[in-house]
Write a structure and sequence with these properties.
heterodimer, A: about 280 residues, mainly alpha, 13 helices, 2 strands, globular, B: about 250 residues, alpha/beta, Rossmann fold, 6-stranded mixed beta sheet, 3-stranded antiparallel beta sheet, 8 helices, about 35% helix
Chain lengths: ~280, ~250
């Protein structure tokens, strides 16, 4: 037995505290890596084409939306705009749905093993980020083939910032929803409904120009557009990658880009408060 | 570090649960608010006023009937829940083998699960890699290491979990009736390892409601009943009284 005692746990009504924390010893990052690996490996184990689904699913979705949009709205619908929108939406939707279950689906782990609970939603989001980045490679190839891509240095430098913003938003939502789902099982059903509504008010199948046109007919609606964090993020994504798309800078549109930081901050606070009671409620 | 420093110290620890333990549905939560019933109303003390110390080299049996608070005590020890009152301190790593499959993923192979559980128990990646051979040897199920965990029998799952925990550098090792899933030979090996571990300065807690099962191994017994510490002392002395009450 080594003399080094490792960690000291103090547990009282203020909560369990371990020193040194796994983040200081570096063990936290190894746990994170192991959990992300579990997410990615576990997700496609037993399926024939495995990881290819990460690309196939958004591809099918983009295909379906494009076909139906063309039937409904005519040949004007730009495939490349739908493509960028759908791929990014898939990333957010999967993070919301998967992240929400991150704690409840790991009940036995949360009850038996002490580790930073935030790693559960964080690893779920990280695994979806990896999938998204893989699908972005396919997206880039398709955009190049369709001829709609804008190859500008500025765009490619700003693009990682957009992905970072989207990831912060997704992580913030996953933190809030995973904690909420432990305390209130209604969360799952509510989120299902809200997610569909969010899809339609976000520029996934359409873009900002379309939304602006709709809004113009209704005075007083315009500023509300930017209350949707995905309005700014998806518009920025298209501005980075596509020809003829630009980000319409205004106070409202600039402020909208701060959403991810706000949601992530709220998510961390909410999760920290809620996590003390996880093991009692699961 | 003075040798007298205990590994574990419980000071008047109590743990209360709300009487309704499943999370309320929205309607229930709202209903309760409207009815102005206090949320603290229906409290259930799973554990109360429990104080004891655990030192290096001790082999303790945690005994008591179902619902006595044994599992609650272990979750407090592991730090996954916090006490409602009192305070406890644990100096060192706790390995608690309490439920088969905790920390494992059913679709990953045995080898992948070794890495996963090892990391969650606080081992660095390099440490897991360095010990993989030794872990696999301890589990002794070479033909199944590349099969997904869902194909494992409970005995095989136990072998894998025990093997990883043995290598996680614990100071305190807690096991309960899950050990019964193992065959006699592996059980003997587990207790052999635990004896060696305790001799090297670790502390072992064996949880059971049947005192005969722990008699051969443990020297001290902590007897819980209805959340209270009923007795704490040499196992031989307690066994008689406990046996009479069963």
């Amino acid at each position: 037995m080594s003399v080094d005692l490792g960690a000291v746990l103090v547990n009282d009504p203020r909560g369990a505290r371990v020193s040194p924390s796994p983040w200081r010893t570096g063990a936290g990052w190894d746990m994170f890596r192991a959990l992300v690996a579990r997410e990615l490996k576990g997700r496609y184990k037993g399926s024939v084409v495995g990881f290819v689904w990460a690309v196939l699913v958004p591809l099918f979705m983009a295909g379906i939306y494009t076909v139906f949009l063309r039937i409904l709205a005519g040949q004007r619908v730009a495939i490349e705009r739908v493509l960028v929108g759908v791929f990014a939406w898939q990333y957010t939707a999967q993070c919301v749905q998967g992240g929400m279950l991150a704690v409840t689906s790991n009940a036995n782990l949360v009850k038996k093993v002490l580790f930073p609970r935030m790693l559960l939603p964080a690893s779920a989001v990280a695994a979806h980020l990896v999938q998204y980045l893989v699908s972005v490679v396919v997206q880039t190839v398709l955009l190049a083939a369709l001829g709609g891509a804008e190859w500008s240095l500025r765009g490619w430098l700003a693009w990682p910032l957009v992905v970072a913003g989207l990831t912060a938003l997704n992580l913030g939502l996953a933190l809030i929803l995973s904690a909420a789902h432990v305390h209130l099982r209604d969360t799952q059903h509510l989120v299902g409904v809200l997610l569909s509504a969010w899809f339609f008010v976000s520029p996934v199948m359409y873009d900002l120009e379309f939304a602006s046109a709709v809004v113009q007919a209704r005075p007083g609606w315009a500023p509300w557009l930017w209350l949707n964090p995905l309005m700014s993020l998806f518009t920025a994504a298209r501005a980075c990658l596509l020809k003829g798309a630009a980000y319409p800078w205004s106070w409202a549109s600039a402020a909208s880009l701060a959403w991810p930081a706000v949601i992530l901050g709220v998510g961390v606070l909410v999760f920290r408060r809620a996590q003390r009671h996880f093991a009692d409620l699961l | 570090m003075p040798a007298a420093d205990p590994l574990v110290r419980f000071e008047g620890v109590g743990k209360a649960f709300r009487a309704v333990r499943h999370p309320p549905l929205l309607a229930e939560a709202l209903g309760r608010r409207l009815a102005r019933r206090s949320r603290a109303g229906g409290r259930f003390w799973a554990l109360r006023g429990v104080s004891f110390e655990l030192r290096r080299g001790e082999r303790v049996a945690l005994i008591g009937p179902n619902g006595a608070g044994k599992s609650t005590l272990l979750t407090l020890l592991a730090g996954t829940t916090e006490p409602t009152e009192g305070r406890l301190e644990v100096r060192g790593r706790v390995a608690a083998l309490l439920e088969l499959g905790a920390g494992f993923h059913p679709d990953l192979t045995g080898r992948e699960n070794i890495r996963l559980l090892g990391s969650l128990l606080g081992l660095r990646r390099a440490e897991v890699e360095a010990q993989t051979t030794s872990i696999e040897a301890f589990a002794d199920i070479p033909e199944f290491l590349d099969a997904p965990l869902r194909t494992y029998s409970s005995g095989m799952m136990l072998r894998l979990a025990f093997a990883v925990m043995v290598h996680s550098g614990p100071d305190i090792f807690a096991v309960d009736e899950v050990l019964a899933a193992a065959d006699a030979r592996f059980q003997a090996r587990c207790f052999e390892w635990l004896a060696e571990f305790t001799a090297r300065g670790g502390a072992t807690i064996v949880v059971s409601h049947v005192i005969e099962r722990v008699r051969a191994f443990c020297t001290r017994a902590i007897w819980l009943e209805s959340g209270r510490l009923r007795a704490d002392g040499p196992l031989g002395a307690i066994a008689h009284e406990y046996g009479a009450g069963q």
